[in-house]
Amino acid sequence: MKLRNKINLFTSVLFIVLLILVNLSIYLSFSKMMLAGEVERTVAEAKQAINGINQVNSTVELQDILLAYVPVNGMMQIVDTEGKAGAGVAVPSQQTLWEIPVRYHQKEVQTVVEYNNIPHAFVSIPMISREGEVVELQVTENLGATAEMLNTLKLVLIIVTFITTIPVLISSRLLSNFITRPITSMIATMRDIKGSGQFKRIPLPKRSKDELYQMGETFNNMIELLEVNYEKQGQFISNASHELKTPLTVIESYASLLKRRGKDQPELFDESIQAIHSEAIRMKDLTQQLLLLARNEQHWLLESVGINLNEVVEEAVQSFKKAYNREVELKQETEVMINTDLQRFKQLFFILMDNARKYSEEKIVVKISKAKDQAVVAVIDHGIGIPARDLEKVFDRFYRVDKARSRKTGGFGLGLSLAQEIADAMGATIKLESVEGLGTTAKISLPLTNSH
Ligand code: ADP
Fold first, then answer.
1. Would you say the CB of residue 69 lies under 6 angstroms from ligand 1?
2. Alpha carbon of 322 to those of 57, 342, 365, 366, 410: distances in Å?
3. Local structure of 417: helix, strand or coil
4. Domain 211-294 adopts which CATH fold?
5. According to the model, what pLDDT value does residue 159 have?
6. CATH no. of 301-451
7. Prediction pTM value
8. Rounded to an integer, what distance in angstroms lies between the CA atom of residue 217 and that of residue 201?
9. What's the CA gap between 124 and 126, in Å, rounded?
10. Which atom of ligand 1 is nearest to the CA of 399?
11. Which residues of the chain carry a pLDDT beneath 50?
């Protein structure tokens, strides 16, 4: 069942049931009150008659006294202990009341009984007869007029119930429409997105900022986020394929050159193999970096251990010197112990060292120091530096200051963005300070373990 129909059905049924209950209780309490009032009136009439009988001289016929007190719509009679009727009077319109079987009740009775489907007030009160015997004065009064009034009330209440049902139905329909309209429009937009593959927003009317408005707003924010991510991903893929295209083109052209003329000109062989080999290495590097970046999407699995930062950096600097045959000076201002993931730290440090190597010729300086509660490892080079306007952007994926130059040095513009992601995962920060033409200082700051 649709939400709209559910709301509709639930509110209508609830309202109608409430209406019926209210009207029913009005009718029942009203009829009870009216009938009780009638019975009380009959009791008062019976008591008046008993007073009359007791006060009037015994020479006056009992029948005549009863005639004076008989209710306008009923009968009055004396019944003895054996259940035999004595003197009695009934008004002409109620002669049928004689047909009711007579019986002695032994105690006072005040009730409503049905004769011929008409309610009657019946009252029986014990009294002492003129002869000094115990008898009962029984009064029966037709309550047809009251019953008619009650019937009219019943009819009015039924009509009122039906009439009020109409606005109830209309308002519950309006309510369900009001609630479900934004949801329906949201579903339509979602279907539209699914069908067209485009990121669309739900139009939000500028009414009160209720929960439905908030839901729509959240949906639009989510779509925006998806769109931004989608575009970023598209950009990333196109950059990656563009980067792969260059080495592939080089490899392809050298391979076809070899195919065409390799056999006749053996001197071409060395050059081609050399170029193909270095381009293959470039591609391997790129795919490795791409894989690392892709893995980051699913969180780095960090394994934090306590390390002596000085030892780790010293070791790394030694292997770097050996691998690249570059002069590196290590300045250790202080001894530092930290808790971190060793492999990730080394990866981060190598990225910065690699940049210093690629973009400078002179000696590289590595400095270990402490600043407040942070351990700082600085990689300082005296190379070409980074122009101030590019300083912010160098952390973006595939961003390179000078593409032509980078191609020669081998960078893809992925190193610093990878470094940034590793640092974020480790809880470290990277800061670059650079002056174009003078050199660059890259600082890794890591939280200290304790007061070391
Ligand atoms: P790449 O692999 O191209 O070096 P990075 O993300 O590591 O990519 O660096 C982005 C760009 O920032 C580089 O292309 C380079 O222009 C610049 N850069 C990074 N480090 C240095 C540095 N130490 N000196 C000069 N320029 C640098």
1. no
2. 147, 21, 16, 16, 19
3. helix
4. Helix Hairpins (1.10.287)
5. 95
6. 3.30.565.10
7. 0.56
8. 9
9. 7
10. 10
11. 451-452
